[in-house]
Every structure is written in C-alpha cells, then in structure tokens.
Write a structure and sequence with these properties.
Chain lengths: ~110, ~110
C-alpha cells in the first residue's frame, strides 16, 4: 500500500527566509503533484512532476522530483506572508488515484 | 467561468437523514472523482468515474452511493448520515490517460452532521 509522508507537518518561518518541505513516498512512481490549500478553500494545483529529475519553478516556489529516492521537495525562497497556506504533495501510481501526504501547514510571519 | 462546481457549499443536517451533493465540470474531462477531507485535513479518495463507469471504489460504507448521469456530472448520495460523515467533500476532474494527468478540484462541500 502506497504511503506518502510529508515533513514538517507545521512550519513557522520568518519573512525573507528559505526552507524546504519534503515529501517521501513508499512505492515507485513518476507522477507527483503539489497543491496549495488556503483555509476554507479548495486545492490549487502548483506543480506537476512527471519524470525523474524534474524541476519546476513558479515565483518563490521550486519543486523537484527524485524517483529513485522516492522523494520530492518544495523549496521556498525568501518567504512572504502570502505564501501562508497548507501544502500537500500527492502521488499517483498511474491509476489516476491521488494518494495525498499529510500536508504541511506553513505560516510566514514578519 | 467555474471549471468544477459543487452544490451546496454548506450542508448541515441531522443524523439519520439522507442527503446529496452535486458536482459539475465544464472542462470537457472524461473522469471525475470524490475525495473526503477530514477534520485533520487528511484527504482520501472515495470514488472515481470514467465516462459514467465506476473505476475506483475505495473502502467506503455502502451508505455512500455515487452516480454519474453523464461525464460532466458526478453526484454523491449519502444515506443514514452519521456524525463521522462530517467532513469536507471535494469533487475533482481530469482527462484520463492524457499528460499531465492533473486533477482540478471543486470548491468543496462542508457537511456537518449533528
């Protein structure tokens, strides 16, 4: 059974700092997704990673995928308050069934 | 110009009642899903339909019955509601077998059972 683990579960960081969220999964897959969820809102797709070594960047966020290590990272550069949200990674075993990680609640303070 | 829409947004009801949630997508996708997000924010897939055919049916009580009248609509009917059914239910859609295989989520329906 596929397990997806994220860490940390909660991250409080100061504006301007850098940090990385980790997503480990237990079964080989080359489909990994990152979503953002604001309180009381839906899930917004951030990145789709479909191959080993894939790296994608959007603004202050950069996601990467290492399928051999079964690891994806979401790196935050020079955090700003607007990035405060919960971030989920999700893995698909080529079955269109997304298995979500536990989520990382990010809080950025001045 | 909503891509995936759900109704209602909020649903408050008593134990034992039967309720339905509706989902519609205008993205032209052929696959739709129901996910449940519990109070700890954990997301789990419940069902998936591809062109009106059930393709994913997770371990969900049979009080939950999805129905897909066409590939743009997927409804969820829940019988004999229990306290543990309180959660946010998200509908999603995607185009199966076509990269990037991305799933687009609706706004969610917050179900509260009292």
């Amino acid at each position: 059974e596929l397990k997806v683990e994220q860490n940390p579960l909660f991250l409080s960081m100061q504006e301007g700092k850098n940090y990385t969220i980790y997503c480990n999964y237990s079964t080989t897959s080359d489909r990994l997704y990152w979503y953002r969820q604001d309180p009381g809102k839906s899930l917004e797709s951030l990145f789709v990673l479909l191959s080993n070594g894939a790296v994608k960047q959007e603004g202050r966020l950069m996601a990467s995928l290492d399928t051999k290590a079964r690891l994806s990272t979401l790196h935050i550069t020079a955090a700003v308050h607007d990035l405060s949200a919960t971030y989920f990674c999700a893995v698909d075993l080529n079955t269109d069934k997304l298995i979500f990680g536990t989520g990382t609640r990010l809080q950025v303070f001045p | 110009d909503t891509a995936v829409s759900q109704t209602p947004k909020y649903l408050v009801t008593q134990m034992g009642n039967d309720k339905s949630i509706k989902c519609e997508q205008n993205l032209g996708h052929d696959t739709m899903y129901w996910y449940k997000q519990d109070s700890k924010k954990f997301l789990k897939i419940m069902f998936s339909y591809n062109n009106k055919e059930l393709i994913i049916n997770e371990t969900v009580p049979n009080r939950f019955s999805p129905k897909s009248p066409d590939k743009a609509h997927l409804n969820l009917h829940i019988n004999s509601l229990e306290l543990g059914d309180s959660a946010v239910y998200f509908c999603a859609s995607s185009q199966r077998g076509l990269p990037p295989y991305e799933q687009y989520f609706g706004p969610g329906t917050r179900l509260t059972v009292t």
